Amino acid sequence: MTERLWAPWRMEYLEAPKSGACVFCEIGALPPAAYREKLVLVAQEHAFVCLNRYPFAPGHLLVVPRRHTADFAGLAPEEYDAWMRLCRDAVARLRAATTPEGVNLGVNLGRAAGAGIADHLHAHVVPRWSGDSNFMPVVADTRVMPEYLDESWKRLAPFFADVAGQHA
To answer: Which structural domain range is residue 124 located in?
Structure first.
């Protein structure tokens, strides 16, 4: 008999009206009071950090420049610098919060490179542990997540409290 891995939180996304607007631009325009609901850990003038709603591992972060651009060249030097500094800060805090054995830091430029949201530049910061990728993605096209997003946010938020910017 086939086993089922239930993911009921996906229905909210599937049934939600699609505005066609950029999700990162929408998050970047939110007031701080909405950060917690949208899983934002810190927001600065030029960039913000949030949890990925469709993570590869618990604690999978996105570091997003506020400017809507698909490539590095679309950022002014001060925006690029602020974004890269926030990537560095996100890696350090993720390491402190989750004690991974390694961290993937990457940017997918274009759909062919794996970008799910290709029109708005963003970096993935993914904690990794030996053996965290098991057989499920290979044989069942399924990822097993050992922690709910809300629990990941609660674990990570205190580690971002000292990063300059706005917090929930």
So the answer is: 38-160
